[in-house]
Amino acid sequence: MKTPINDIRAAGVTAELSRWIVGLSGTDIPNEVRREGLRTFVNWVGCAVGGAHHETVDRALAAVKPFSGKATSTILGRPERLDALHAALVNGISSHVLDYDDTHLKTIIHPAGPVASALLALAEYQEINGADLLTALVIGVEVECRIGNSVYPAHYDRGWHITGTAGVFGAAAAVGKILELNETQMSWAMGLAASQSSGLREMFGTMTKSFHPGRAAQNGMFAALLAQSNYDSSLQAIEAPRGFANVMSDKQDYNEILGDLGTRWEAALNSYKPFACGIVIHPTIDGCQQIREEIGERARNIKTVELVTHPLVLELTNKHTPKTGLEAKFSVYHAAASALLYGDGAPTAFTDEMANSPEIINLRDRISAVADPDCHEASVTIKITFSDDSILTKHVERAIGSSERPLSDAQIDTKFLVQSGLVVGEEQAKSVLDICWKLESLDNCGQIAQVAATQ
């Protein structure tokens, strides 16, 4: 007997969210939200190209290339092409491996990796115009952030990497929107996404961290494709007693998912990293860079550095002796030393060479940090004691890249050109940046991936 697919046969969170996704048109999204969606996309492409030559991407490609189907979709910043599902995986890895991508500050989700990686890979498999892709991107970001809000922080505190676990819903919603799923199919896609929700914080500081958004992109796309073929699932996958929220979190606030849909936009709250590491370290880097500008080579005369930070800083980045560049991204001590000695918080600060630099290690060993629950997540106090026992104190009230000090379009451009220029060269990086900002006017946004490919 053929499965009925024309209406939702259950009321609930998953059904209502699916109904909203299916019914939303591009004109329902306010211009300022679409503009933030465009900034999200531009920043994501720069990060994907910037990470393209990392050894993590090399190893992922070596593993999946023998199993790829028809090569339809580009790996940004590289000559390889894979089938759309594997391209979504690898571009998701590439976009996150430098830890330089976007952040939804309320949940610490990196929204673009799962969603944009899936959409652009699909855009080379079937033609998608830029306006529709941007609409789907905003929807995907909105869905994953709302689902993230509903379970954060309890879900994160359990040890789940929320970019992977919530991101799969965003990718499924975005691809499902492009595929024009009906309401029941969209609910099935949410259920299929819920069954593939994964990612553990234990993996931070390893290659597997960037695997999470890549896998979320691939799994979310697969969920939507299965649903398009009427592959069914529970219609209450998010809220059921044995569904996503109840199994994976001690908190379930479904108003965060359904409340003010279409009027309160989580996608408008996205932020963009000025530094290539965990965002909780950014206040420290910001303050240490300011100190470096003030003291110059006196940085070589530092005796001790004392940091007073938010507790999450030490929970996430308390690695005293990182051995690799990926581990260094989760060391507030390494980040502070690099910023004080070289003024650096870019990807060049977080390489294997820098992690093992004798000069960095020497200063790193003289840096201490304490947690203060009254310290804001975007704040830090830094106390420098010099070899002559003089003291300099710097307080950063809100770090650059925070909601109070967001990156401008020009700063996003600079970030894009610097990191992608190292991979594809200055001229090609400019061409990719230019076409990204023109996204909404493109008849076929697969052109973006092709412009970002190398020979």
TrEMBL record:
<dbReference type="InterPro" id="IPR005656">
    <property type="entry name" value="MmgE_PrpD"/>
</dbReference>
<protein>
    <submittedName>
        <fullName>2-methylcitrate dehydratase</fullName>
    </submittedName>
</protein>
<dbReference type="InterPro" id="IPR045337">
    <property type="entry name" value="MmgE_PrpD_C"/>
</dbReference>
<dbReference type="Pfam" id="PF19305">
    <property type="entry name" value="MmgE_PrpD_C"/>
</dbReference>
<dbReference type="InterPro" id="IPR042188">
    <property type="entry name" value="MmgE/PrpD_sf_2"/>
</dbReference>
<feature type="domain" description="MmgE/PrpD N-terminal">
    <location>
        <begin position="16"/>
        <end position="255"/>
    </location>
</feature>
<comment type="similarity">
    <text>Belongs to the PrpD family.</text>
</comment>
<dbReference type="InterPro" id="IPR036148">
    <property type="entry name" value="MmgE/PrpD_sf"/>
</dbReference>
<dbReference type="InterPro" id="IPR045336">
    <property type="entry name" value="MmgE_PrpD_N"/>
</dbReference>
<dbReference type="Pfam" id="PF03972">
    <property type="entry name" value="MmgE_PrpD_N"/>
</dbReference>
<dbReference type="InterPro" id="IPR042183">
    <property type="entry name" value="MmgE/PrpD_sf_1"/>
</dbReference>
<feature type="domain" description="MmgE/PrpD C-terminal">
    <location>
        <begin position="275"/>
        <end position="438"/>
    </location>
</feature>
